[in-house]
Amino acid sequence: MEEAILSTPEDGVFDLLESNPRGLRYDEAARRLDVEGPNVLEKKRGVPLWRKFLHNFIHFFAILLWVAAVLSFIADTPQLGYACIAVVVINAIFTFWQEFKAEKAIESLQKILPRKARVLRDGEEQEIDAEDLVPGDVVLLEAGNSISADARLVQVNEMRVDNSALTGESEPQSRRSEAMIIENAALADLSNLVFAGTSVASGSGRAVVYSTGMNTEIGKIANLTQEVKEEPSPLQREMGQITKILAVIATCLGVLFFSLGVFVMDMGRAAAFTFGIGIIVANVPEGLLPTVTLALAMGTQRMAKQHALIKKLSSVETLGCTTVICTDKTGTLTTNEMTVREMWVAGRDIVIGGVGYTPTGDFAVDGRPPDDRDTGAMLKLLRVAAFCNNSRLLRPEEQEEQWRILGDPTEAALLVAARKFRYDYETELRIFPRLYELPFDSRRKRMTTTHKVENGVEALVKGAPMEVLGLCKRVWEPEGVRDITEEDRTRVAEMNDRYATQALRVLGFAYREVEKEQKHYEIEDLENDLTFVGLAAMMDPPRPEVEQAIAECRTAGIRVIMITGDYGVTAESIARRVGLIRGRSAKVVTGPDIEEMSDEDLGSVLEEPGVLFARVAPEHKMRIALALKEKGEVVAMTGDGVNDAPALKAADIGVAMGIAGTDVAKDAAEMILTDDNFASIVHAIEEGRAVYDNIKRFVTYILASNIPEIVPFLLFVIAKVPLPLTVMQILAVDLGTDLIPALALGTEHPEPGIMRRPPRSQKERLLSTRLLARAYGFLGPIEAVCSLAAFFLVYWLAGWRPAMGIAAMELSFGAAYAMATTACLGTIVSTQIGNGFACRTERESIFKVGFTTNRFYLLGILSEILILLVFVYLPPFKGLFELQAPAGWVWLFMAAMAPLPLVADEIRKYFVRRKRAHGTRKAGAEEETLQRAA
């Protein structure tokens, strides 16, 4: 159908769509509305809020805690059950609160469609609700209108449309009404069609609607967005693995100790069952889930200060293992604001500073300020550019920071250049008003206006340089007007070619004096016998900070790939300007090229250095993202337009622009850059890496305390020692004293060089052998020895000696039991303080990093000491946890144990650093030997 719409002549379009130049009859429009349905984007039913909330109660870790709670009630330990339930509920509420703004991309797509449309019905022009448009409706379009449906143009008057939100093209595109035949054309090349969600930049036209609602191009994007399935983030997969591992360990140990209790210790089944539950609870790090959630939430707050808003908590860590950033060009790498970069007038090349529509920037000629001759020449060119112009530059209104434009961005860029020059063209236009206009058209490739001036009437011409130059017989210079020479023409052509090879858009300017004022002029009256003035070269410039950000990505081992709807030449030019391509020639792959490729071919292309994608459609972007993910890459996709939404959803993390981005892009993304600054992505990635490192820190910290919590149960079974630590006391550590220090470790600053190492492999596990060995095999045993020493110290001070036997501890010294368990608990808390300092770094010495550089951790230490004192001395808690204050000497012993884990780990780190340094020197010596041999 679309091919027929493209190739049918204007007068045949009405028959093809069963319409009429006078528009549809009212009854026919109503009938079609019943058949086709309203012109709206259908919304696929999303997951209800109550189900999203419920999900936070039934993921694997939560189920593990629910089971522990149920078993606790069965074993007649309700306090333990309530504690487990509290952990699940608090964490669920907190997570839901952070993520309750559910993604509603389709609703946002609906918002960008205009509410009203101007149509012909029964020959009468009227305004109707956009949702009432039907195929066959004749719509009337003019500058500033948003377009409500896909339609075929049947009449145009110098019409240009802004397709940037749909195709990514930075410049308005000319439209035509003539039939065209193009095979495998990109959306942007279909110049006799207009699409829903775009707008008319200039001119006017008339079109016949052929698609509405979900059948439009924007509707297809909506479908693509809906079809993308959410996948768990790397962290979610890691947490799932950790939970399963810990659940298996806890369950196996629980069953083992239940069996030992029944068959070895002759315990009753009920007592052995309670004992087994205690073992399970001791091995489930209840504080891990809320600590991870809070750490991610705090990561989002720190990222917000770096202008990156995170919508989904798990996305914080996903950024840290990003390996590829697929970035749009327009509005992401560039400003999406056309800017005049250079002018050539009177034989001088003038460079203009500044970026975007803000009229600030300097002028330079060969690196120096312009002299009087240059100034006069620039004024002449800018006068022609500002007068022969239909756009407007709008000052920022209240509560706005940015200048805005009304009209064609290319023309607006000329006005910005004039304002930078401090040329008051608005006042001069009032003095020398416009009399007549010959609008720009694609055949003539120029525009002409006439103005009443002091000496009569002047015609000003702007257009394609070589077209304008061909009409010139003279050239203007500050010294006067002279006949143009072949050398002049050659020089203009050379400058035009030089600008064009830099992907700059070039306009030529000329003028002529008109003999008399008329109400109407023919083209031949004005566009001949011209005097050439000069050239202006402009582009949608790269953001100033992008080049440095891309260099940092390269250092961090992150690949950046440009994907744009713009032309390949423009894309390659921008890629070179920002450092995406260095030296080698680029491999430009277009949307039609992708359609011809198999998945294997596309995968091979993605491996090539210097590849960039141009003239791509939304489905191509999504396919690229999926192909990269298939190759094991962690993909971040940036974008700001409607066309980016499906790919943003398909990527591991979608990154939308907060200022220039459409609501569609923002709602489809997991992260929004509030300053539209590509460099903010780099800061966010650094923060994401730091978050993962910090999660490893507090996981090590939390797991290390599991050893002193489980060893007492081993002694209880093997040596029949009175249980040194009760289940409730374990919870006092896991959910009480440990929580704030663990969270404080989540605020640790990134280690030096974090962005000089490659991205973390997806195969690397959070619970690595190294982490488990450090927590379970090194730090944990030190804490266990210290805490048990405190336990036995209390019995020693009470008069018990090893020679009396273990049985005497319970028979003769039962009164000391509560104080002994309190000492065991207190020593676990004190050694966790030293353990926390040790966990702040993996290899670097804490003496180099500094004890006071993480003030939150210092507050965490204070909090756990205060919580311990509250548990020991306040009656409600004292009874709940079965604690009794030990003697002063025992408190001193507990305090003395605090540094031991830190001292031991500092010794370990010293040998690790020494070994690494030796390996580095050895590798360097071998390389030097090989170089000498060569």
Structural features, described:
This protein has four domains: 2-44 and 107-227, Calcium-transporting ATPase, cytoplasmic transduction domain A (Distorted Sandwich); 285-302 and 686-920, Calcium-transporting ATPase, transmembrane domain, CATH 1.20.1110; 308-334 and 544-676, HAD superfamily/HAD-like (Rossmann fold); 339-539, 3-Layer(aba) Sandwich (Calcium-transporting ATPase, cytoplasmic domain N), CATH 3.40.1110.10. The strands form five sheets. Strands 10, 11, 12, 15, 16, 17, 18, 19, 20 and 21 form a ten-stranded mixed sheet that branches. Strands 1, 2, 3, 4, 5, 6 and 7 form a seven-stranded antiparallel sheet that branches. The protein contains 39 helices and 27 strands. Mean pLDDT is 84; it is low at 101-114 and 930-934. A hairpin with a 4-residue loop joins strand 15 (434-441) and strand 16. It is an alpha+beta fold and 934 residues long. Helix 12 runs antiparallel to helix 28 (678-704), helix 29 crosses helix 32 and helix 30 packs parallel to helix 34.
Strand and helix map with partners:
Blueprint: H1 2-7, H2 10-16, H3 26-36, H4 49-55, H5 60-74, H6 78-99, H7 105-112, E1 116-121, E2 124-129, E3 138-142, E4 150-162, H8 164-167, E5 173-174, E6 193-194, E7 199-211, H9 217-227, H10 234-263, H11 269-283, H12 288-305, E8 308-310, H13 315-320, E9 324-327, H14 329-333, E10 339-345, E11 348-352, E12 363-365, H15 372-387, E13 392-394, E14 404-406, H16 409-420, H17 425-431, E15 434-441, E16 446-453, E17 456-463, H18 465-469, E18 472-477, E19 480-483, H19 486-501, E20 505-514, H20 523-526, E21 530-539, H21 546-555, E22 559-562, H22 568-577, E23 587-590, H23 591-596, H24 599-606, E24 611-614, H25 618-630, E25 635-639, H26 645-650, E26 653-657, H27 663-668, E27 671-673, H28 678-704, H29 706-718, H30 727-737, H31 739-745, H32 769-797, H33 807-811, H34 817-839, H35 846-849, H36 855-873, H37 875-880, H38 888-897, H39 900-933
Parallel strand pairs: 9-22, 9-25, 18-21, 23-24, 25-26, 26-27
Antiparallel strand pairs: 1-2, 1-3, 3-7, 4-5, 4-6, 4-7, 8-27, 10-11, 10-21, 11-12, 13-14, 15-16, 16-17, 17-20, 18-19, 20-21
Helix pairs in contact: 5-6, 6-12, 6-30, 10-11, 12-28, 12-31, 15-16, 21-28, 28-31, 28-32, 28-34, 29-32, 30-34, 31-36, 32-34, 32-38, 32-39, 34-36, 34-38, 34-39
